[in-house]
Design a protein that fits this description.
Elements: H1 4-40, H2 46-57, H3 64-125, E1 132-135, E2 140-143, E3 146-149, H4 152-166, H5 173-181, H6 190-204, H7 207-213, E4 214-217, E5 221-224, E6 231-233
Length: 234
Amino acid sequence: MPGPISSATDSLRAGNRAVLWGIAAIVAILALAAVLLFISLPDANAFNARVERIFVENDALTAPVELRLLEVLAGSGTAFSEVLSSYRVIIFILLVFATALLIAALVFLLMIVALNRRMTQIQRTGIEVRSLRILRGENAVLLNDMAFTLTPAAVETLAVLAEARMDDDVLSGAEIEAVISGRPAPDCDEAAGATRIKRLRDALGNQLVAELLVRNIARKGYTLAIPKDAIRVE
């Protein structure tokens, strides 16, 4: 059976192929529309050709007024040819902009879909933590590339959870309070430990980080959703 890495690679390749095919389809559709549009446009010299035909078929027109009329027609044909040529350039530029905008919209849409999938994966599986360093002396926590400055009480709570995680233990609220206060666990209140956990989450600030970093296991207690080999307490 293929492993998760190969499955992810196949999914990535399939996504890249979908993007390439989508961009190719957009370019092909707009190119076809451009060809049909340019084919349907009249020839820029069509008016000049018609005026030239009038000159040829009416060579008997020699009066000054008649010649002046033919000159006006010839000038109109030239102006029409220039305007139609400029329209072709404008249409081409608009089609290029439309292609660029559609490609950008497709890329941004796929990026949003990918980010939504990533966020969903994070919400389901938790944060991918490569390292967690707890600096008690500086009242700081380094989570991957994110730095948090916490209160001494929050740092102490997190350190207790980290040490318990390294021992594969799950601590109840009373046990957390007992470790921090130094009193026996039966003499400690469960609500006191729960309050410390709440303050720790509030100190972390980011709700997604706080909720997924500190896990609450029903009827057991609290633990960190982090590999124990990634934790360092200093």
